[in-house]
């Protein structure tokens, strides 16, 4: 059975794209077949997986509008994951999709065509709660919220959870909120942990194990266009591998997801 996971938070810079890329690569290393979907018009996921959005003839935009078959648009990557790429065209998809009935279901319909080819599909949502994120949440079985562990991290979480509940009521009753993943976590101070336990308490949101530490290796990796997972061994990559194992045991072996205690 294919599991579809959306990574969503309307805040930018909380490591959504980094999480999709690193988790995808870590799952692929466990011999899981992975498709990652770039739903952000900025195309950062597409770019960091080695494809220049400006050079692509077709993208998820054409698939959502029904102008291309999804199978014709998929790309291979050096990370061993398959990519449904985005280009800046996607910025116009919001307006074009809004005029169509069933607009929230466009991605779900497209993924149904290739679902059986992949064990896990991970969707990188854009930094907004517009029709693209609604497409991601409507197509997904589960959603994870990356939270940057800094003061005010909770801002917007209430609104995101409200959107998830509306999707559960209207377009996708099967959607499960798996929890938050703590990103840019600083284990040397108590601040990150205090922020996390505050958000977890306030919204009754489980926090998945382990937190992802802040490490300069991520910035170096995006600058060089190569995944942090392929570089030298580092604590960020190790954390994403542990998170991938945690999720895969839950999906494949039916074990409970491991979460943090505060
Ligand atoms: P989003 O997709 O939510 O906008 P990104 O994944 O693009 O966020 O990450 C934002 C920035 O933070 C990027 O420059 C990325 O390299 C950096 N980053 C992500 N995770 C980490 C980390 N664990 N440690 C240090 N920098 C990180
Ligand atoms: Mg992003």
TrEMBL record:
Residue ranges of every copy of the AAA domain listed in the record: 3-177
Domain of life according to the entry: Bacteria
Coiled-coil intervals: none
InterPro entries: AAA_dom, DNA_Partitioning_ATPase, P-loop_NTPase
Primary role: May play a role in septum formation.
Family as reported in the entry's similarity comment: Belongs to the ParA family.
Name assigned to this protein: AAA family ATPase
Source organism: Gordonia amicalis
């Amino acid at each position: 059975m294919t599991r579809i996971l959306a990574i969503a938070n309307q805040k930018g810079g909380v490591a959504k794209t980094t999480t999709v890329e690193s988790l995808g690569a870590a799952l692929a290393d466990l011999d899981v077949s992975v498709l990652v979907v770039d739903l952000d018009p900025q195309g950062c996921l597409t770019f960091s997986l080695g494809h220049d959005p400006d050079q692509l003839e077709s993208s998820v935009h054409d698939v959502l509008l029904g102008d291309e078959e999804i199978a014709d648009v998929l790309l291979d990557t050096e990370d061993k994951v398959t990519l449904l790429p985005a280009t800046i065209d996607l910025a116009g998809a919001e307006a074009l999709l809004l005029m169509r009935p069933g607009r929230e279901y466009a991605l779900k319909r497209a993924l149904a065509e290739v679902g059986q080819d992949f064990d896990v599909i991970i969707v990188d949502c854009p930094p907004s709660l517009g029709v693209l994120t609604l497409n991601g949440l409507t197509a997904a079985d589960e959603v994870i919220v990356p939270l940057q562990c800094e003061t005010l991290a909770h801002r917007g979480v209430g609104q995101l959870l409200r959107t998830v509940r509306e999707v559960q009521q209207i377009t996708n009753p099967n959607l499960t909120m798996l929890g938050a993943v703590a990103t840019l976590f600083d284990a040397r101070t108590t601040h990150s942990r205090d922020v996390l336990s505050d958000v977890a308490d306030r919204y009754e949101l489980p926090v998945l194990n382990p937190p992802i530490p802040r490490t300069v290796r991520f910035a170096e990796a995006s600058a060089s266009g190569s995944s942090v997972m392929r570089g030298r061994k580092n604590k960020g990559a190790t954390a994403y591998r542990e998170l991938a194992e945690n999720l895969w045991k839950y999906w494949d072996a039916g074990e409970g997801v491991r979460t943090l205690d505060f």
